[in-house]
Amino acid sequence: MLDVLLLSVVGCAVVGWGTNALAVRMLFRPYRPWRVGPWCVQGVFPRRQREVARRLGDLTARDLLPPAQLGAAVAAPAVVEAVRREVLCSVSERLEEAVERAPGALTGLGHRLVGKVREAVDRELASRLPGFMEQMAVAAAGEIDVARRVEEQVGALPPERLEAMLVQTLRQEFRFVEGVGAVVGGAVGLLQGLLWIAVG
Q: What pTM was computed for the model?
């Protein structure tokens, strides 16, 4: 009797695990459509990849990375300051190079002029650069179609690459689903074995 119960539990656990493992694999495979008589068999993600790509693009543009947020990132104070420092450094370097090429008598005067020009450029950048960066942010936000770009990128992924990405991200969850199948199958097998013993 005990061997029947054990066989029922193990057999049903294996069937439950195998069924869920097969279901997880069929989320992605087969990559290309297989014709089986009047039916077409293909993995869920490859079959609906275009729709998934479109919805992911819409979600990204609407909730994750809206154009206004992109624009705000471009015009952020830290970005403005980094651009100001880079422009000021570049202008100073070019002026210093020009002074070094000047005749010796003009070098001292040139260095003083470089300091004055640098101060003037710095004042101009401090007053005008934030507004310029905001204008650039608005223009960039209008030009960048986040939804379309995400849709194109995800839609163009080969099914094998899409599977690799999702399996790498969701490996533990997929194993959990397979484990739940084994546990549920084992519980059904136990119940079934007990019924056989009770009836027999």
A: 0.57
